[in-house]
Amino acid sequence: MSFSRVNSSSATLTKNRTEDSITSASGMCVTCVDGCIGMCEIGKSAYRGHEVIYPQPFGVITTAAEKKYPVDYSHFNIMGTAAGAHGIEMDSDKAIFPAVDLEVHIGNDGGLKFRYPWIISGIGSTNIAKNNWEGLAIGSAMSGTGLTIGENVVGMDPGAVFKDGRIVDTVDLKRRVKLYKDYQHGGYGAIIVQANVEDGRLKVQEYAIEKLGVECVELKWGQGAKDIGGEVKIKDLKKAQMLHERGYIVLPDPTDRNVIKAFQMGAFKEFERHSRVGMVTEESFAATIDGLRKAGAKYIFLKTGAYRPADLARAISFSSKYKLDLLTVDAAGGGTGMSPWRMMNEWGVPPVELHSLVYQYAKRLSDNNRHLPAIAINGGFSFEDQIFKGLAMGAPFVKMVGMARAPIAAAMVGKTIGLSIAAQQVPVYIERFGNTKDEIFVTASSLRQELGSEVFDKLPTGALGLYTYYERLAQGLRQLMAGSRKFALEYLSRNDLAALTREAAEISNIQYIMDIDKSEVDNILC
């Protein structure tokens, strides 16, 4: 059985000629014909080379792996019960699903509070992030959830001003922070500024703390989509040269005379901008944490990717020793930008395996009375059942799940609906609900009442899309939790899940469905 499609994908705009007859090992057509124009990935690579490493078309898509892992969260079911209630009085008139409390408080001082147990954990310098930031920032702030400004935003900003290799003014970062803060209310949520190697050199986080009033910063070791630095594609020669001057790796060299000529002739249409990989040592990590605290950071997070188990252990250990406020662990297969497609599919530890290791390692530290930060896990979460499973799998250590592609999708759809309303061309599929945002978005009436018509009328529909999607997730999660009789997140446990296969049970140490409740059953039936 093959878990991967290795020679064709809609992500790379490739396909096999003999789609129903493929060699599983190579992914090639069983009969490769002399004279084929090269629709498959091998064929397209014969004339576009390295361009085919990345998903296409860049800038208007988000991407995630299509590899089918042997075990995933669908191999677990949520266990409900007909008896009892945790976190609320055992009264049928009180133990109703709207009463489920989804608030999360994290940070060493408990000072960060979120209305819901999820966070957007890193939207950086890609066009897909920049073009949808209005919806993502405002929607997140109105929902009282966290939003992370990802890597390289400052370095990519043409309006950024540097002095002695340090950032002193920005356009894009200012805008991103302000859009969130303008709609933040009730003390809920947080805007987080992330930094990779280049951001660290430019002192981006110190600038955000000192000049923009940012309280939360996050160090980045990696993500689930790739184990190298971030990449984007650049269609403009002058911008490619600007990034080269700022110290980024830009391929091909935009200052080379022959490269410039080839670009102007149309031999290629995009430059690649790459970030450097980090070199983690405890000494440098400790120094960075100390420097950020001296700069005034109130909360410090770490995000790591789907690296080998030793790196996960290192991340949890460092986060414990240096008393970080949140550790985010991103499992293999994710992606929001233009991670290399084969890398996205074929490297790293998949979600169930990685999240099981997170629990094991966190429990070891907890059993030794070591400090543990709150933990968030990423790995393709998009709906309430998956969120429940992720939180229960890591309970009591995992407090939130991280998402990216799903919230972006909600914001993009909301934005597209707004454009269709403005053009008076609402698609038939949507027109059945109405032709205005008050009619189409089910949360519109309550938001108009809460915010007032003047504020509501100015809301971008991308923000409405994200807010409404979050409202659905919240109600769905409350219903599932009420069915398990857990009326606050603190009561979720691994016993709320059952593994549907022996393999899933062995990997996760979640009980197999036919073994669960055995002792209780014996007591009932004795």
Automatic annotation (TrEMBL):
Name of one Pfam family that matches: Glu_synthase
InterPro entries, per database record: Aldolase_TIM, Glu_synthdom
MF-aspect GO terms: glutamate synthase activity
Annotated Gene3D superfamilies: Aldolase class I (3.20.20.70)
SUPFAM superfamilies cross-referenced by the UniProt entry: FMN-linked oxidoreductases
Location of the Glutamate synthase domain: 279-400
One BP annotation, GO: glutamate biosynthetic process
Family indicated by similarity: Belongs to the glutamate synthase family.
Name of the molecule in the record: FMN-binding glutamate synthase family protein
